[in-house]
Each structure stands twice: as structure tokens, then as C-alpha cells.
Amino acid sequence: MSLIQTVDEIFDDFRQLEQHIIEELNPEFEHSSVRLLSEFAPQEELETIRTRVYWLIQEILEKLESLRNSLAHIQNGENSEGVKSEILELQSLLGRLASVITRIKNLIALLSARNAPQNVPQAGFWKKTKKVFSIIKRWLQGISGQLWQLLSRLMTPKEWKLAGELGTGVFGLAKAQVEVTFG
What is the longest distance spanned by two Cα atoms in the chain? Predict the structure, then answer.
């Protein structure tokens, strides 16, 4: 798979994830977590979270598009240093988005503890909502892993060092060290 195809796959994965996040954070959506959370959480806090998530999603999508364009240039022989920086910036943005998702999960845990559900449907809501955001966070981690794989494909070894010893002790064990420097 080419580098551009890999980015296209990441882009598609993130677009699908975006749809799920938007549904969960949209108070107009009948079964959204935020709509149900709004009964317990301060509206200002929910709006801050929603605004931050939407901004991060837009930034990530723009960076993915930029990365795709940059990869087209390096396949024509240009330097890949800028692409590596773009991937690291994407990793940073994904980390920030994962932090906001963690904030949502923590808010859910706090609110469910404060409003210890007396009835089973409400208990089910807290459990379902926390599970949804756990899945979203794992999805983000998967996308992050795809970016690390992409970065590793752009890195070329500059220098190799190999050192070793054969043991003469009772077990005669060998000891080896490998060091790889990327340029």
C-alpha cells in the first residue's frame, strides 16, 4: 500500500469516527450522550467540550489533507522532513482529542457517582455512555497507531551498530546489543 493510500485510509477511518463523535455530542440527536448528560452536567462545560472537540476534528481533517498533499510531493523526490513534522503534529492533535474524550469519561464517572442511579434505566445510561466514549478513545488510539506506522515507513536507518559477547560462564550465554540511528 502506498503512503498516500495509507493516509486515505486514515482519513476515511477518522471521518467515520467523526460521525460517531458528532452524534454523541449533538444535543439535537435523540440518543446522544450529551443530550442525556445535559440533565446532570453544567451546560457551559458541555458547550466548552463540544466546541473544543469540533475544533480539534477540523484541525485533524485539515492536517490529514495537508499530509496527503505533502506525500504527493515527496513521492516526486522532495525531502520528507516536513511530512514527518506533519505526522507528529497530527499525533499531538489526536492526543489532545483523546484528552478531551478522557475528560468526558471522567465527567460521566463523576456525574454517575453524584447521581447514583436509583433506577435501572438510568444506570444503563451511565454504563452505555461511558462505553461509547471508551470505544471512541480506542478508535483514536488505532488511528494514532496507523500514523506511527506511516512515520516509521518514512524513516530510513542512517547508521547501525552491533556489539556482542559470548559468555564463558556456566551457561555460556551470549550478549548482543543493536543500535539503530535514523536520519
Answer: 73
Q: How far apart are CA 17 and CA 24, in angstroms?
A: 11
For residue 109, give every residue at least 6 positions away whose Cβ sits within 8 Å of its Cβ, in sequence order, or none.
Answer: 130
The per-residue pLDDT for range 46-88, each reduced to its tens digit, is 999 999 999 999 999 999 999 999 888 876 656 778 888 999 9
- Selection from 56, 64, 63 nearest residue 7 by Cα: 64
For residue 55, count other CB atoms closer than 10 A to its CB: 14
**Cβ atoms within 10 A of the Cβ of 164, count?**
9
Element (DSSP H or E) covering residue 163: strand 157-166
Bridge partners, 161 (sequence order): 179
User: Which phi and psi angles does 180 have, rounded to 5°?
Assistant: -120, 130
Q: Which three cell numbers, joined as nine digits, stand for 4?
A: 498516500
Euclidean distance between CA atoms 145 and 139, whole angstroms? 10
Report the C-alpha gap between 52 and 48 in whole angstroms: 6
Number of H helices, E strands in the chain: 5, 2
3-state secondary structure of 116: coil
